[in-house]
Structure formats: C-alpha cells, structure tokens
Amino acid sequence: MSEDLPHPAKPLKIGTRGSPLALWQAHEVRRCLMQAFALPEDAFEICVIKVMGDQILDKALKDIGGKGLFTREIEEALLASDIDIAVHSMKDMPTVQPDGLIIDCYLAREDVRDAFVSPSVPSLAALPQGAVVGSSSLRRRAQLALRRPDLKLVEFRGNVQTRMKKLEDGVAVATFLAMAGLNRLGLTHMARGPVEVDEMLPAVAQGAIGVERRLDDARVAGLLAAIHDGPTGIRLAAERGYLATLDGSCETPIAGLAVIEGETLWLRGEILRPDGSEAIQGERRGLAADAGNIGRALADDLLARAPQRFFAWQKA
Predict the structure, then answer these.
(1) What is the pLDDT of residues 130-178, one digit of tens each?
(2) Residue 26 sits in a domain of what CATH number?
(3) Is 244 found in the same domain as 184?
C-alpha cells in the first residue's frame, strides 16, 4: 500500500463546496486519512468547487433543481479526474450516483437532531401564536405546519452565518439548523437546544459525512476503507434505501432515522404533504445485516398507505 499513498509531490485532491461547514468536513476527512496512514498535511490538497446551490440563494431549492444543485459540479470534477475524492453532507446527496461514481465510505455519524435557533424565544414550544419561522427545508416546514399550523413559515436559505444574520435582521424570530453542523463548527452555543427526534424526525442521513470516489479507482478505495465507519454505513443503507424507494427529492417532505440496537436495526419514517395537512408514519425492525431491505420495506408500507397524489411527483 505504501507506494500508493499520497505524498507532497502528488497530493490526494479532495473536492468540496466552499462553505465553512463543507470545508470543516473536507479537513476532517484529511485528518482521518493523515492519522490512518501517518501522512503529512501537504500530502493532500483541498479543492474548493463552486456549486449552483451555493450561488443562487434567493430561490427555493425545489424551484432550481433539488439536491443535485449541491453535488453536480463536484461530481463532474471527480469524473474528469480533476479531484480524487469528493466530500459531501449525505443529507444533500441524491440516492443515485452518476455512472462511474460510488459512495462507500462514511465517517462516524454526528448528532442527528435538529437545533432550535432563536435570539428571543427559548424553545420550540415557546413560539408565540403566529410567529414567523424561517427554513429552507421542506421537511422541517411541513413538520412545523403539521404541529403548529398557526406559524408563518418563510424561505430561509444560506449557510449558518447567513441565517444567523437574517435572524438578527428580524426576517424571522426562529429557524432550525442541524445540531451536527453547529457541533462541528464549534457553534453549539447558538442553539437554544436540540429538538428530540420524537418531536421532529430528522432528514435522512442527517449528521453523516460521505466520501465519493471513482468506481474503478482501487488505490483510493483502499485508502478510504481505512476510515470507513461500519455502523454509519449500515444505518445509511437503511435510510437511503427507504428514501430511494420513496423517490425522495427536495420536492418531497420525508424524514427517516435508523438506529442500531445490538444486531437489530430500528428504522422510523415519516412522509408529509408539503403544506403539513397530513402525515403518515411507520417503523420497521429487522437484522442490521438486512438494512437496505428494511428501508425499502418501510417505504413500500408508507406508499401503500398514502392517498393518491400524496407526493409532489404524483401528477393529477
């Protein structure tokens, strides 16, 4: 393996978005590889790639193309061999990768919960009647509309710092972020506290970092195998199998969370109408080794119970 290791004269190129959180994640992958193989920092090169989703901030994701907006340019660079690996927040990832690419390396998962963030309101339960809440997530907005139909929900895109500025400017009194992102950036103090999963089931793959590579790159496959977290891989196999069967996109409010309990995997799921007028929940348990099939079975159950045209992609 030693002859295949990256070195300063031929560094491993790591592709990433340019947001502070994306850069933290790329640096964390580099740190893990440095530690696993006793490599110097200059054996790696962080390559920032601009993606459309970070450049168009005044429109909802569903109006400009969905999840691929955060990955397309990075994956094009990977296919062109301009970079060697790509680091992604897995909750942003489509369930199908382009031909020739694969994600089979995950770092250990962080806190999966949403964070309630507000300069003036202490908790979700304390939001006053008719309060304005900002979120770019269809899933969060649908869950809030279901539980608190009195709230006024507004579009709220941008990185952590952008959203905090919008709160300061009074665009909304509260918003939600991922606890994982705040923890990773050392900004946990910005949250009033986490929202427990029994109150708001998180997005599929929330808190997980994935590393994408070219399918035929055996050298990189060997490097990434050393930093892959097996339990996270099992959990995401269930969650992403569930999401793929539901044909999940940024137009569909879907929540899901898998937990490993010994040799058993417990998967919970929730699908909602975008306006929060209806939600269907379900769960499945089975052997962790059968994670993908558990995910698909739960999705099939929810689909069977959903009325016609429940989803945005089901046309009249």
Answers:
(1) 999 999 899 999 999 999 999 999 988 777 788 888 999 999 999 999 9
(2) 3.40.190.10
(3) no
Contacts of 170 (CB under 8 A, 6+ apart): none
130 phi-psi bin (left φ>0, alpha ψ -120 to 50, beta other):
left
**For residues 238 and 289, what is the distance between their CA atoms, to the nearest angstrom?**
10
Q: N- to C-terminal Cα distance for the chain?
A: 56
For 101-170, the DSSP string reads: EEEEEEPPP---SEEEE-SS---GGGPPTT-EEE-S-HHHHHHHHHH-TTSEEE---S-HHHHHHHHHTT
Greatest alpha-carbon span in the chain: 64
pLDDT tens-digit readout, 231-266: 999 999 999 999 999 975 556 799 999 999 999 999
92 catalytic residue (yes or no): yes
What pTM does this model have? 0.90
Of 54, 84, 92, 114, which one is the catalytic site residue? 92
The total domain count for the chain is 3
- Amino acid symbol at 296: R
Residue with tokens 């893990």: 32
Write out the residue range of the structural domain in which residue 265 sits: 240-305
CB atoms within 10 A of CB 86: 26
